[in-house]
Design brief:
Length: 571
């Protein structure tokens, strides 16, 4: 184990040295770039440098994925000639970053300093909603910061687990007491493993309802005559990605962590230390805010309420299968438009006639759906993180005792009670004798019946599959492809002259509930933003291309042979 730890430390030191070399090399390049060329050239005036098209940094500054990276802002380039102050600030930032990296323990997890903590199963770390680094890695806009990818996070977690197993074997071999038994001597009250899993599953079920209803409601209000974007699933994907970014970066909602706000305490100590330094007094030990922030992020991601919000609400608010379905319908010139639609909402019913077009327009329609959805969802992820940073002074904190003693238990009752109530409403709708009849089942109830199944399926698939390949999140990929295939088959069955209104409503519930919650955009774009560039493009392209090919085979075989029949249900 000592050898493996030494190897890990040596690898990190090597990466850090490479980053430092890259940092100083970039500084030398900046200096040499101002030297006059010996060859004949253009005699441009000095004020040409005031053009922001020339002065602005490259959009991709860390093109090699360096572990230690220096940020070049436009403000810094503008003030570069005034010089020594900014260079001194960069040197201090570099020293702080290297100091933080060297002091931060590798492959270690922080235990609670008393109070109550959840007994989270180890395989929960395979959830990419919990494993992905924050969308904003440099919230304080330091000139130098440490970059960390999703692959590195997974490799460190796997190395940590291997070290723990090796350490247990060595301790048992020499007859020592395992560390887990020693840690039990601390005054830490752990919630039982069964209770922790029950709370987590209950939150997933409860927030799958909220996410599904939010998605269906947002589709309804964004599907109106003259809408500039006719595929209304876009706004649900953007909204869910924005909430995911906010939760990933937020440090206030779960500030109390397991009952002790350690990150907040470290932050206050750092402020006091800064004031002492300004007054001339010195302190013996520097406060490592980077390590404290990382420990806080790791702690809040073990809280069942956070898992319910990130995996349950955001994952069910967004839908990868509906995104690929809209892409196929746009390509095949069958995408519903809100022009001249009936007054009541029906996402698949249109009174408009489709105007024929050539293949070039269909290809452009396909690209429009894909590019718009992916780009806006990734942008929303980062905007959500920026909102969390901006609203930090006003974001309230959820008391840990209130969450632990009240919300957790209330979630168990509400989740299972609401699921049972949705099943009863689907069997015995309350408006059976009204006109129009039984609209509740088609609008939302059947979707709520199937939503928890899709959410829990995605949760367990991520737990058992995401750790297989660190550079390719297999769990998210499998559920997105499988859910897309299911939504294609359900769509086909809806558009054949078989069955009646009830069967059509059940299929609509499978599409909106099961497939909508089984597949996710928020986790997908979070993974794309955290993976290395080559792996992100490979993973993203494979997800879109393979899912789209499935729909071409499943839906295209019916549309281009017999054609789609009219729906038996409008809800």
């Amino acid at each position: 184990m000592a050898a493996s730890n030494a190897d890990a430390t040596g690898a990190e030191n090597t990466a850090r040295r490479q980053g430092i070399v890259s940092y100083h090399s970039e500084s030398r390049r900046d200096t040499s770039a101002r030297r006059p060329s010996r060859d004949a050239g253009y005699d441009a005036t000095d004020n040409y440098a005031n053009l922001n098209e020339i002065a602005a940094s490259s959009p991709v500054q860390n093109d090699d994925g360096q572990h230690l990276h220096r940020v070049r802002t436009l403000e810094e380039r503008r003030s570069h000639h005034s010089g020594e102050t900014s260079r001194e600030a960069r040197r201090q930032s570099l020293a702080r970053t290297i100091s933080h990296s060297s002091r931060r323990p590798r492959n270690s997890r922080r235990s609670s300093q008393g109070g109550t903590s959840y007994d989270i199963p180890d395989n929960y770390v395979n959830l990419d909603e919990l494993a992905t680094p924050s969308p904003v890695e440099n919230p304080n806009e330091e000139p130098v910061y440490l970059h960390k990818s999703l692959e590195e996070a997974k490799k460190q977690e796997q190395q940590y687990e291997r070290n723990q197993i090796r350490q247990r074997r060595e301790e048992l071999a020499v007859g020592q007491k395992p560390k887990e038994e020693k840690d039990e001597e601390k005054v830490v009250h752990h919630v039982s493993r069964f209770a922790t899993q029950l709370y987590t599953i209950s939150y997933l079920i409860l927030f799958s309802f909220f996410g599904t209803l939010a998605r269906l409601g947002l589709q309804a209000i964004t599907f109106y005559p003259g809408a500039p974007v006719v595929f209304s699933e876009l706004w649900a994907n953007v909204g869910g990605s924005l909430v995911m970014g906010f939760l990933s970066e937020d440090r206030m909602l779960f500030k109390e962590e397991w009952g002790t706000p350690e990150y907040d305490q470290q932050l206050q100590k750092a402020k006091e230390q800064s004031q002492d330094e300004e007054s001339g007094s010195s302190t013996d030990q520097a406060i490592d805010l980077a390590a404290a922030k990382k420990a806080h992020a790791a702690t809040k991601k073990t809280i069942p309420l956070y898992i319910g919000l990130a995996t349950g609400f955001c994952g069910c608010f967004t839908s990868f299968s509906s995104f690929i379905r809209d892409a196929y319908l746009a390509m095949s010139n069958a995408l519903p438009t809100p022009l001249n639609h009936p007054a009541d909402y029906g996402v698949f019913e249109s009174s408009t006639s489709t105007v024929s077009r050539n293949g070039g327009y269909s290809f452009m329609a396909l690209l429009a759906v894909i590019v718009t959805t992916v780009s806006l969802s990734i942008s929303a992820l980062h905007i959500g993180a920026h909102l969390a940073i901006f609203s930090e002074p006003w974001t309230p904190t959820m008391p840990f005792s209130f969450c632990r003693k009240f919300l957790d238990r209330l979630a168990v009752v509400l989740a299972w009670g609401c699921w049972l109530g949705a099943i009863f409403l689907a069997i015995w709708p309350p408006d059976r004798h009204d006109n129009p009849p039984e609209i509740w089942r088609g609008r939302a109830v059947f979707a709520l019946v199937f939503a928890p199944l899709g959410c829990l399926g995605r949760f367990y698939a991520s737990i058992y599959l995401n750790s297989k390949i660190s550079s390719f999140p297999l769990g998210t990929f499998v559920v997105n492809i499988f859910g897309t295939a299911i939504i294609g088959m359900s769509y086909d069955l809806q558009h054949v002259p078989l069955g009646g209104a009830i069967g059509c409503q059940v299929l609509q519930g499978i599409e909106d509930g099961f497939c909508g919650c089984l597949t996710t955009i928020s986790t997908w774009v979070s993974e794309l933003s955290s993976l290395r560039r080559r792996n992100a493009y490979r993973y993203g392209a494979a997800s879109v291309v393979i899912a789209f090919c499935f729909l071409v085979v499943i839906m295209g075989s019916l549309q281009w042979t017999k054609g789609f029949s009219a729906l038996q249900c409008t809800h």
